[in-house]
Amino acid sequence: MVSSGKARAHTNIALIKYWGKADEAYIIPMNNSLSVTLDRFYTETKVTFSEEYIRDVLVLNGQTVDDSEAAKIRRFMDVVRNIAGTSMYAYIESDNFVPTAAGLASSASAYAALAAACNEALNLKLTGKELSRLARRGSGSASRSIYGGFVEWEKGYDDATSYSFPIDADHWEDELAMIFVVINNKTKKVSSRAGMSHTRDTSRFYQYWLDHVDEDIASVKHAIKDKDFKYLGEVIEANGLRMHATNLGAQPPFTYMVEDSYLVMDIVHQCREAGYPCYFTMDAGPNVKILVEKKNQQAVIDALQKSFEDHQIIASDITRTNVEIIE
Ligand code: DP6
């Protein structure tokens, strides 16, 4: 028996960050998080199960991979086999659609697409909530990539209660965009998984972070309801910086910010002063993402172009499309 399924999932960027796990094995987070799903960056994954296969094989952008990421995917496939009650291995072909060399491939879109492709191939008939729970087992942020638009991940307290759901924004997403500034990084990479674990375990500021996330989530939901961009921006910028501050409080401390990250933050401030509201956020790397209303997108790009090359500046709409089966 051979069965296959192919799915497309878009990546997401957290406006209120997930930073720290309560349970490492099941990927239960310490706090709720909230994201927007991006139109421009996505993953398409085809999975084929067969009794003939003797192990899981992963082909990423046309190349067979057999590294720590492949090991992670095999562990995820064990979760899938367990749910499906099958012992079949799989051949997984995955393509990331991100501008070349931008280094923006994301585990969020990867595991959301893989979860949906497995659901289709094995006819599991998982609901959106169950798909989000499954994607979460691969990478926490993937639980949010099941949905388009604004999405909240409810931390829950166990496997059954930790999943994401969409937030109705009355199509406000259509008026917003995110600009990525891709910054070349010469410093050693600290993965989000390692960074958040070290910070959760050692940061003097971590409890302060936890104590304020819920109010940030509530504020963002108010801003969405009122379509209040300035309020939304102020809350998300402060939340992102607070997450990065927890890393500075870790022992030993570390940071994802490099000189050019600060330069982008400066440009964002200048744009605001010039009457173009826009707000930045950063994740586990030096790149800076800027949330802006579409009507001001070009003005912000123009300002960035004075300091960065065209290929470093990538704008994306926010998509309201959920993970979908293709073919
Ligand atoms: C800073 O979802 O990549 O982007 O669950 O360990 O796979 P794992 O981590 P991951 O972490 C994302 C961290 C973040 C913030 C966010 O996306 O919420």
TrEMBL record:
The keyword Lipid metabolism applies. Residues 179-319 form the Mvd1 C-terminal domain. It comes from the Bacteria. Its EC number is 4.1.1.33. Residues 9-163 form the Diphosphomevalonate decarboxylase-like N-terminal domain. InterPro entries: GHMP_kinase_C_sf, Mev_decarb, Mev_diP_decarb, MVD-like_N, Mvd1_C, Ribosomal_Su5_D2-typ_SF, Ribsml_uS5_D2-typ_fold_subgr. It holds the Pfam family MVD-like_N. Keywords: ATP-binding, Lipid biosynthesis, Lipid metabolism, Lyase, Nucleotide-binding. GO terms for molecular function: ATP binding; diphosphomevalonate decarboxylase activity. Gene3D superfamilies: 3.30.230.10, GHMP kinase, C-terminal domain. It is an enzyme of class 4 (lyase). One of its GO terms (cellular component) is cytosol. Transmembrane segments: none annotated. The keyword Transferase does not apply. GO terms for biological process: isopentenyl diphosphate biosynthetic process, mevalonate pathway. Belongs to the diphosphomevalonate decarboxylase family. This is diphosphomevalonate decarboxylase. The lineage of its organism: Bacteria, Bacillati, Bacillota, Bacilli, Bacillales.
